[in-house]
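Risk register update: the risk that structure generation would not scale has been downgraded. Supporting records follow, first protein first.
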Amino acid sequence: MKRAIKNNVSWIGKIDWELRKFHGDEYSTHRGSTYNSYLVEEEKVAVIDTVWLPFAKEYVGNLEKTIDLKKINYVIANHAEIDHSGALPELMSRIPDVPIYCTANGVKSLKGHYHQDWNFRPVKTGDRLSLGNKELIFVEAPMLHWPDSMFCYLTGDSILFSNDAFGQHYASELLFNDLVDQTELMAECIKYYANILTPFSELVTKKIQEVLAFNLPVDVICTSHGVIWRDNPVQIVQQYLRWADSYQENQITLVYDTMWNGTRVMAENIAAGLCAADPVVTVKLFNLAKSDRNDVMTEIFKSKAILVGSPTINRGVLTSIAGLLEEMKGLKFKNKKAAAFGCYGWSGESVKLIRGQLDAAGFNVVDEGIRTMWNPDVKSIEECIEYGKKMAQLIE
């Protein structure tokens, strides 16, 4: 369905209410998502991005009801990932000679996905494409979050088409940021940043500063997922700058897995000690085997410190914790403290292993950690409480 955004710019995307997993099974989407595609109808007509592959025929069918496909002069591919480019084969089969504007890396990526030699027109930062009285200005945005990524800016209407930047996985018929539940919106925004863009935070800051230096007015930010920012759109840009700057809140998060509840008992009593020593700090606990990993990672992103726990199994750690530690290496969190804890029966390597992995992931590991043999008894529980109190001081 075509929906007006501003003047001759319309949304022509797809709302996916059923989506619950994304990037394979790597990212949870509890509130669904949208695949935002845009139609700009000036003297020349441009389509900006498409939708995910499973909706390709539906997308082109709806687009054909909106406009004669032969009137499309340009296709803009801001990013080649299949959730944005998936309908290109279906669309280009109908308009095979229409040029596709993308970065040089975009050409490589699109050819790699679809093995088609379409009419590619590589662009770089500062290149312009005339639509008549208005122009599209292209801005390369490599590694935000793929090498091929770019933005484009529509003069006259002051619209930034930002692709994956500033978006969120959030299905809504309401389309615009001022119409949706603000708590839900910001929860999905920070989750998106924490799990997808955190490794590129330095690049986020540099790219935003570069775009701001152009001194172009921005009235609307059209993202590729979730809502469109029309009410104070710069608010999400400012929020990205905060998140990119080694973000933390006054929060400590304990993440653990447990076999026979010993490590859980440790976590709960360490948390009790933290709260006793610092009644103001927010303390959250997650059994990773029972919690959504992306939601937990968002809480880690918000935290000034984390404590990670696992019993020892086969001289290692439980698989949920092993996966978390490996993923945190890739996310490259900064300016966060950490410690390890866990139960053991006879060998007891888990705390040392967790500590090493936290260090490798860039955390400031504040001490040797705490471990308890077998199920914690009264003495061990008191030691955990005291350890929590000590942690509150070390984490300050």
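Supporting record for the second protein:
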Amino acid sequence: MAGALVVAFLSLRRIKGSVPTDAPILSLAVVEESFVVATAEGILVTSDFDEWVPLFGDITGVSHVASSEGQAVIRYEKGDRRYIARTFQLPEFETVADRGPLGTAVAVGRSGVTFVGVSGEREGRVIAVGIDSAVEEVDIQGQGPQEMTALAVVTGDSPRIYAGGLTSGLWLAEGFPESPAWERLLATPIRSVLTDPEDPDRMWVGTPGGVLISSSAGKSWRFTQNRDSIEAMSSFGGTTYALTSDRILFRSGNGDTNWEAMGESVRR
């Protein structure tokens, strides 16, 4: 009887304020005060953690989201066609069709470019989809990761691509589009990768063992105070967000210490 009560309590704790689905969580995007979660069965959004609303209600399959500097991108499939929806303010979207593969991860670039990671049996690929729906594969030299379920792109003076997954670890391709080459940075299982828009050398990865932080563009790492199993990460306005395997969203003002559970799902 006591065991049953404990199970019931844990279930209530998990549901209260957490993402209300058992579908695998794929990615997270934050836009202003809204939190967008992509799962294997569709997309959910909330602003108050009391109500989670499906986006694009007719989408029930795999979708991916990403955000950067206040812009969120949602990439999804409906029927036999693929679409990219971009927004700076929910619920308004600009939606275009594209001809690229659905892929297994998404990242936001400059000038409306969306980067798509595509896992492969021998090697993964990175596709760039322009705002005009033009599709171009990024030419990266050398053997790279097979699994790409985490993707981040840094543009500007030191452009680079980070990609990885649970079986691939973390990989870096520096200097695109000028013939970058893959370099493996970590063998650690990776579920999410996030870079700081203000300091591209500062970055995080979400792993089954917690959030790792780097101040050297991924050359060295240490654990933050968040040691939960992480499914997805995002940032907005200088705040870092991490979504755990038990579907609770945490935030930290410095991405390192004082992680706070959002909503009413407080476990500590």
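The chain has a mean pLDDT of 87. On this basis the risk owner (M.S.) recommends closing the item.
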